[in-house]
């Protein structure tokens, strides 16, 4: 990827959007859904919903950048950045799918939409006023949509109203298309939450935040604030992990993440953010693609970086009235701390009356089991005669007890080790669990070697792995194992048997070499405590 200027922040390249969550999976809306009348209007006007962000966000910050994707694979050819400017060489279909005939984009990219929206000021504007701001030809095309509705109002950023005439696609057009059909479409299809006991249990954990928000009257900054509060609660209750384990087949994916396991990565966080936003009444959907957050290197053509499999990411996308669809990052450490803070009102705690200590009272209160001072006496206390046991009478039972305890400890070590190794072998032999079991084993070994596996990005994990295990494995072998792990996390397809075997061989090789380089005490720990051999 090459940018004419250095972006201010992250760039999201959306590859796929999913709309319906049911039985632990995300699915897309059927194609027939996009035959609604509102999409006929889009086609006649040559407009596309994701362009809303280009039209409405530009006046907030005039920084525009050109971006080029060079030599991409088939997947990257289908990726579209947020805030792009459509031209005849970009063919968009439906609501959120796109096919491109060019790899060049002009985007309002690399900025923090969340931050800008939360700080903006907004004013209600009638549809008639917006129609008057459109070019005459475009206004005539929009007239059928606004007929009988010119007195209705929408909330728009003040900056848009001042600069709307300077835009290739005016915010007035985007606002009219949204208010006269697309917003209703969004609320019909992107607020659905499954009706299940799992969803009821999840909602109960966030009920105080959900009930305080009123979507019918909320302004864009209030909507952003609600999302930030939900995200903050989410990240306080769960932990980011690259190896959270597999969701049991009898459990709901989201419920198991939020209420039981409480460990996950971007897929888990994004799913939770979408469902929580919908519970609050904020339209949202689940997105997958690539997120560019690493530093772009300056070159003759601008700023460039390479898009790797490790840039694969999942995030939440929310609909902001008057703005459009924006990426909302929920994965821990990928977002800026909330701009606003909210504390639910609470009753003041009851005041307890504590009697002032008297002059005779002790400055330090002891526990009720405090020993009572014995009365002073000049006579020695009476004592009972003590019979000393014979040394020979205790020697044999003591030795026997020690031997039995030692034998029990050895037996437990052997039994536990056999059980752990048997479970690992069975998991590695099972085609359904071999990939995740081998990846979990590899992460444990990396951590044992000194790598920090709690890092939040695959790039950081790769750096940690090379630093900690470079003396035991070649860089090529480490990279190959990490590449398999990345595909395991993000690819919709299962790992092949050759991938699983390669990852297992890497784990065995790393175990053997690390064990051979360890001292005797460490070897005992690795074999009998960690059960790596």
Descriptive key words:
elongated; single chain; five-stranded antiparallel β-sheet; 533 residues; alpha+beta; 18 helices
- How many β-strand stretches? 18
Number of distinct helices: 18
Give average pLDDT, whole number.
76
Strand order of the largest sheet: 9-5-1-16-15
What is the gyration radius calculated from CA atoms?
Answer: 32 Å
**Range of helix content:** 40-55%
Structural class: alpha+beta
- Low-pLDDT parts are 337-391
- From the spread of the alpha carbons, the general shape counts as elongated
> What gap, in angstroms, lies between the N and C termini?
44 Å
- Per DSSP, what share of the residues sits in E-state strands of 2 or more residues? 5-15%
The main β sheet shows up as: 5 strands, antiparallel
Question: What is the strand and helix layout of this fold?
Answer:
Layout: E1 2-3, E2 11-18, E3 20-22, E4 25-27, H1 37-45, H2 51-57, E5 65-68, E6 80-81, E7 90-93, E8 97-100, E9 104-107, H3 113-119, E10 122-126, H4 127-133, H5 136-146, E11 153-157, H6 158-163, H7 171-189, H8 197-205, H9 207-211, H10 220-237, E12 239-240, H11 253-261, E13 263-264, H12 266-280, E14 284-292, E15 297-299, E16 302-304, E17 312-320, E18 324-328, H13 391-429, H14 434-449, H15 458-469, H16 475-490, H17 497-516, H18 520-529
Parallel strand pairs: 12-13
Antiparallel strand pairs: 1-5, 1-16, 2-6, 2-14, 3-4, 5-9, 7-8, 10-11, 14-17, 15-16, 17-18
């Amino acid at each position: 990827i090459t940018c004419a200027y250095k972006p201010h922040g992250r760039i999201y390249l959306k590859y796929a959007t999913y709309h319906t969550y049911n039985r632990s999976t995300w699915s897309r809306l059927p194609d027939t859904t996009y035959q609604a009348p509102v999409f006929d209007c889009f086609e006649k006007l040559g407009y596309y919903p994701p362009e809303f962000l280009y039209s409405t966000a530009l006046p907030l910050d005039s920084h525009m950048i050109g971006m080029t994707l060079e030599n991409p694979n088939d997947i990257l050819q289908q990726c579209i950045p947020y805030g792009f400017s459509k031209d005849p060489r970009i063919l968009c279909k439906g609501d959120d799918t796109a096919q491109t005939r060019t790899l060049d984009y002009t985007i309002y990219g690399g900025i923090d939409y969340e931050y800008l929206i939360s700080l903006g000021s907004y004013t209600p504007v009638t549809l008639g006023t917006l129609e008057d701001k459109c070019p005459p030809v475009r206004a005539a095309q929009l007239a059928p949509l606004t007929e009988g509705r010119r007195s209705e109002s929408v909330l728009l950023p003040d900056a848009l109203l001042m600069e709307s005439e300077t835009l290739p696609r005016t915010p007035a057009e985007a606002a009219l298309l949204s208010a006269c059909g697309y917003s209703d479409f969004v609320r019909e299809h992107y607020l659905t939450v499954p009706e299940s006991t799992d969803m009821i249990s999840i909602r109960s954990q966030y009920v105080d935040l959900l009930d305080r928000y009123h979507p019918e009257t909320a302004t864009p900054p209030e909507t952003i604030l609600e999302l930030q509060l939900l995200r903050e609660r989410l990240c306080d209750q769960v932990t980011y992990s690259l190896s959270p384990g597999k969701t049991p087949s009898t459990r709901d994916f989201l419920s198991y993440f939020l209420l039981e396991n409480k460990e996950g990565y971007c897929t888990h966080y994004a799913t939770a953010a979408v469902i929580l936003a919908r519970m609050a009444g904020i339209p949202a959907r689940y997105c997958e693609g690539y997120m560019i957050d690493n530093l772009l290197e300056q070159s003759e053509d601008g700023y460039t970086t390479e898009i790797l499999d490790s840039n694969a990411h999942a995030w939440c996308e929310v609909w902001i009235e008057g703005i459009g669809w924006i990426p909302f990052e929920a994965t821990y450490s990928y977002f800026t701390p909330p701009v606003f803070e909210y504390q639910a009102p609470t009753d003041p705690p009851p005041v307890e009356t504590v009697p002032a200590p008297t002059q005779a009272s002790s400055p330090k209160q002891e526990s009720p089991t405090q020993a009572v001072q014995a009365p002073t006496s000049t006579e020695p206390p009476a004592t009972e005669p003590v019979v000393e046991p014979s040394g020979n009478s205790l020697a044999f039972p003591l030795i026997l007890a020690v031997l039995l305890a030692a034998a029990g400890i050895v037996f437990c070590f052997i039994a536990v080790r056999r059980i752990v190794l048997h479970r690992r072998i069975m998991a590695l032999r099972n085609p359904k669990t071999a990939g995740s079991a081998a990846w979990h084993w590899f992460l444990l070994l990396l951590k044992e070697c000194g790598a920090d596996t709690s890092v939040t990005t695959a790039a950081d994990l790769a750096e940690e792995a090379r630093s900690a295990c470079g003396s035991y494995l070649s860089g090529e072998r480490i990279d190959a194992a990490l590449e398999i792990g990345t595909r395991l996390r993000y690819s919709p397809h299962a790992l092949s048997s050759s991938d699983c075997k390669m990852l297992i061989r890497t784990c065995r090789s790393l175990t053997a070499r690390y064990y051979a380089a360890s001292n005797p005490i460490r070897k005992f720990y690795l074999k009998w405590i960690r059960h790596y051999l």
